[in-house]
Amino acid sequence: MTPPPKLYAVAVLITALAGLLIYWGRLLYEGVWQQVDEALPDIGGLARYLLGIIVLLTALWALAFASYRLTFLRWHLRRETRPYYWTWLCGLALLLFELLQLRTGREPAFADENMLVTGVLIGFIIAYGYVADSFRARREQLHLVQQKTEAELTALKAQINPHFLFNALNTIYNEAQRADNETVADLIQQLSGIMRFTLQESKQPLTPIDRELAFLEKYLALQRARLPQSDRLRLSTRLDWDGQPARIAPLLLIPFVENAFQYGISLAQPSFIDLDLSVADRRLRMRLTNSLPAQPASRSGSGTGITNARQRLALMYPARHELRIDRTSDTFTVDLTLDL
């Protein structure tokens, strides 16, 4: 019976490690402990030396890890703040060099050696940042692929033959036109566009920004049509685009808008929704504010859509977006800035 691949790999590792330790042990025995004419080696001194190396390597790893978490991720991934990262490395190189100078008593003869060691240490710290970030990006990419696959499977399970639905909508649309009811016909056409976008564009990793905005406009039009005209209800929306080509992850913005309509609208109390969305120089800015009227306990909260949207932003736009959500006793505000 063939052992599992994981156990086989572990066995190979143990064999290689054991062989290396036996080889080194034999060299130490023949070169040090077998020399009976000389004094026995200082075991305590050797242990302290090895312990010092372990402490030094641990401190170096901790410094590289801290530099990656606190400066590489914060500054290096953003083009506008990247000079701060390299400025920090210059300061760190100066600090390490001065520590090495203190260790050697500031002897001029050791200056070149200390510069070389400083360069090696800084090189290790820089390499650690790039390697660690490549592993992070790989993990996030795999997680994103897994989420996309799960979403596609969920959508496939939830679909009820989209061709049947589109044919049914076309039939209702034709009947509305025959009855000369343009309002109903227009609403059906908008609903059909929403369904088509959801089923087709959502399969793509990115979609043109104008299609995403058109989808939002259709959704807002349907919401306006279903809500009654009332002085107690205010809907203010502005969608602006400068016309420059840009692409965005499909259905990325709709969870915030859906959340506003779900929790911000009340037919019994004064309520409002203010949406201001603009795209200029391939930079999207959205500010969405809605009231928080008293809701039944079953509808309390902000929903799971925003949580999923936050995760998609973190996975698809790392270091390229800023999302701030503020909630008070009577308002809920979303501020999003996104580099497309």
Question: Can you describe this structure in just a few lines?
Answer:
62% of the residues lie in helices and 14% in strands. It is an alpha+beta fold and 340 residues long.
List its traits.
alpha+beta, Heat Shock Protein 90, 9 helices, 62% helix
Report on the architecture of this protein:
This protein has 340 residues and is α+β, with helices and mostly antiparallel strands. Among the domains are: 95 residues, no CATH class; 110 residues, Heat Shock Protein 90. The protein is 62% helix and 14% strand. It has 9 helices and 7 strands. The strands form 2 sheets. It has a 5-stranded mixed sheet with strand order 2-4-5-7-6, covered by helices on one side. Strands 1-3 form a two-stranded antiparallel sheet. A hairpin with a 3-residue loop joins strand 6 and strand 7. Helix 3 packs antiparallel against helix 4 and helix 5 runs antiparallel to helix 6. The two termini are 54 Å apart. About 2% of the residues have low confidence.
Helix content: 55-70%
The count of DSSP E runs of length 2 or more, i.e. the number of strands, is: 7
As an assembly, this protein is single chain
What is the SS-derived class? alpha+beta
**CATH superfamily caption of the domain at 230-339:** Histidine kinase-like ATPase, C-terminal domain
Query: What is the CATH topology assignment of the domain at 230-339?
Result: Heat Shock Protein 90
Largest sheet: 5 strands, mixed
Number of helices: 9
CATH architecture of the domain at 230-339: 2-Layer Sandwich
What would you report as the Rg, rounded to the nearest angstrom? 32 Å
The first-level CATH class of the domain at 230-339 is given as Alpha Beta
Provide the spatial order of strands within the biggest beta sheet.
2-4-5-7-6
Overall spatial form: elongated
What fraction of the residues are assigned to beta strands by DSSP? 5-15%
Distance between the termini: 54 Å
Overall pLDDT: 77
Low-confidence stretches: 296-301
Helix and strand element order: HHHHHHEHEEHEEHEE
